[in-house]
Design goal:
- With about 300 residues, the chain is mainly alpha-helical.
- It has a domain of about 210 residues.
- The protein has 13 helices and 7 strands.
- The chain has a 3-stranded mixed sheet with strand order 3-5-6. Strands 1-2 form a two-stranded antiparallel ribbon. The protein has a two-stranded parallel ribbon with strand order 4-7.
- A hairpin with a 2-residue loop joins strand 1 and strand 2.
- It is globular and about 50 Å long.
Length: about 300
């Protein structure tokens, strides 16, 4: 499921793609702004144009993720014929009114990036597996953080896989500069950031699991903090991690705020997530484990 804790990353991606073809809410006739009325229709994945998909077709996991999202029947809201909305309006609607049970993501047009398909699919897959293990119901905080950590770490895995072979893909051209900006804000720039990229490309699977565990551990720890000073200590304890400069790229506060508002922590659901987390940590390769156990069965 495409979730609110995922939405900021999703729309940073969609925003970057939309800068060159921004959907306006009005047109100007004779110096007068004529505003469009927003009307939406619900569409499935197969009714959308998937941008950048050619670069992703060589990745075995992509087909399984796309199939999972299609089979889940996930819906999207796009402007009706003759209607328009803008990326900032779509962002507002998604961040404010997303629902795990009845969600339908608002898109600016009938297009979606391939990496967003994969990211959204991971949320469906994780939610499905947790529900199978612990029963239906509202997700726990741990489940929300677990799903987002997998989906977000997979974005980094994609950078490692695609940067050497598809450097001109839209995903690489938008994602790497966003990562670079976040890293620079944290003090990692120039040759050091380039070295980090090279290490990610050298072993994308390892990069995935290291970032996944960092995101899951830090978010879980910060969510349990009683104030800013305690949370700052959590962040400081992780400053030595090689992916610490990327932490704020993922806007962890949005994950935590959503979990505080909507999560329902039951022992069964919390325990199921921690069992899955340990399985990934103990596996020989977390990406391969996910593919074999959750995408190919």
């Amino acid at each position: 499921m495409l979730s609110l804790h995922y939405a900021p990353e999703f729309f940073r991606r969609q925003t970057a793609l939309s800068l060159g073809r921004r959907c306006s809410r009005f047109e100007v006739y004779g110096g007068v702004r004529i505003w469009w009325r927003m009307a939406f229709k619900s569409v499935g994945l197969d009714e959308l144009v998937i941008d950048d998909e050619e670069a992703f077709l060589g990745l075995p996991l992509y087909a399984g993720l796309k199939r999972s999202l299609r089979e889940a029947g996930h819906r999207f809201l796009v402007p009706e014929v003759g209607g328009q909305t803008s990326w900032d309006r779509a962002l507002f609607l998604n961040l404010t009114f997303w629902s795990a049970e009845e969600g339908a993501d608002v898109l600016c047009e009938e297009r979606i990036p391939a990496d967003v398909v994969a990211h959204a699919a991971w949320h469906h897959v994780v939610a499905r597996e947790v529900s199978l293990a612990a029963g239906p119901g509202a997700p726990s905080s741990a489940a929300l953080f677990f799903g987002e950590s997998i989906a977000s770490a997979f974005d980094l895995y994609l950078v490692g896989r695609l940067l050497p072979v598809a450097p001109d893909s839209s995903f690489i051209e938008t994602q790497v500069p966003i990562m670079q900006e976040a890293a620079a804000e944290a003090g990692l720039s120039g040759p050091d950031f380039q070295a980090l990229l090279e290490a990610i490309c050298a072993d994308p699977e390892r990069a995935f699991e290291e970032l996944r565990t960092l995101l899951f551990d830090v978010t879980s720890a910060v969510a349990a903090c009683r104030g800013a000073l305690e949370a700052a200590q959590v962040l400081e304890r992780n400053d030595g991690h090689r992916f610490a400069p990327l932490l704020h790229h993922y806007q962890l506060s949005n994950w935590i705020l959503y979990a505080r508002a909507y999560a329902a922590d039951t022992p069964e659901r919390v325990q199921a997530v921690h069992r899955f987390d340990q399985l990934l940590r103990q596996s020989n390769g977390a990406v391969a484990w996910l593919q074999q156990n959750w995408l190919e069965r």
